[in-house]
Amino acid sequence: MVKEHWNDGTLTLCEPSLVPVLKTLLEEYCPQLIIEFGTYHGGFTKYLANWFAQVPIYTIDIQLLMTKELHDWFIKRGNVSILYASLFSDNLIIPFLLAMPMKKFLLVDNGDKDMELNMYAGYLRPGDLLAVHDWSDEVNLEKCGHTLKEFDPHQMNATFDENLGTSDFRFFYRKHRKFNE
Predict the structure, then answer these.
(1) Could you tell me the pTM of the whole model?
(2) Is residue 100 situated within a structural domain?
(3) Residue 83, domain CATH
(4) What is the C-alpha separation between 115 and 121, in angstroms, rounded?
(5) Fewest beta carbons less than 10 Å away: which of 81, 109, 128, 136?
(6) In a domain, 148, yes or no
(7) Quick count: other Cβ atoms within 10 Å of Cβ 171?
C-alpha cells in the first residue's frame, strides 16, 4: 500500500515505522554507493538522498511514477541519477558500479526480484549490503536461493520480526565472491 510520508506529497511503499530503523542501519553501514531497483514514486529514494547527501545514488525503474517536482529535486541535489530500465538493459553500467571497490548498498525492489537478485547480486563484493523489499510476497527462494548462498543474513532481520512485526525487508551481507560460475 502506498503511503504518504512527506508533507509535499512524496509517496513510498515503506512502512513509516521502519524508516528510523532503516536510517540507523544504513548510517551504521556508511555506504559509499547506493543502487536502488524500484524507484516507483521516489519516496524511499528521497529518504536516501537526504540521509546520504554526498553518496552517489542510482535509482532504476522501468517507469517512474514520481512527480516532476521530485524528479527536478533529485537533479538539483546532484547525487541522484535516475535510470530507466529499458534504456540500460544491455548496458554494463550496473554490473560495473556493483563491482567497484567501495562499500555498496543494493536495494532490490522492482517487480522481478528473483531476476534482479540473480542478475546483479553476484557483482557485489565481500561486505557489501543487499536488501530486498517485499521479501515475503515476491521472492521465490527456489529461483534465487543459489545466489543468496553467497550472503549472510543481517542480524536486523530478526529485529524487524521481533520489534516491528513481520517486516517485508530482508538484509544480507556478501560473504565471498566466486567468479566463472
Answers:
(1) 0.86
(2) yes
(3) 3.40.50.150
(4) 10
(5) 136
(6) yes
(7) 25
3-state secondary structure of 171: strand
- Provide the total of helices (H) and of strands (E) in the chain, helices listed first: 9, 9
Residue 29 inside a domain? The answer is yes
Q: How far apart are CA 8 and CA 12, in angstroms?
A: 12
How far CA 126 is from CA of 40, 176, 178, in Å, comes to 29, 5, 10
Residue with the three cell numbers 529499458: 86
Summarize pLDDT for 54-85 with one digit per residue, the tens.
Answer: 999 999 887 777 888 888 999 898 999 988 77
Alpha-carbon radius of gyration of the chain: 15
Q: What is the pLDDT of residues 121-178, one digit of tens each?
A: 999 999 999 998 876 666 677 788 788 888 988 888 777 666 555 567 888 999 875 5
Question: What is the span of the domain harbouring residue 74?
Answer: 3-174
180 occurs within a structural domain: no
Cell numbers for 118: 540473480
C-alpha separations of 112 from 24, 28, 138 in Å? 27, 29, 8
Grid cell listed for 161: 520480526
CA nearest neighbour of 51 among 81, 29, 69, 67: 29
Give residue 163's identity as a one-letter amino acid code. N
Between the alpha carbon of residue 16 and those of residues 26, 98, 152, 164, the distances in Å are 16, 28, 26, 11
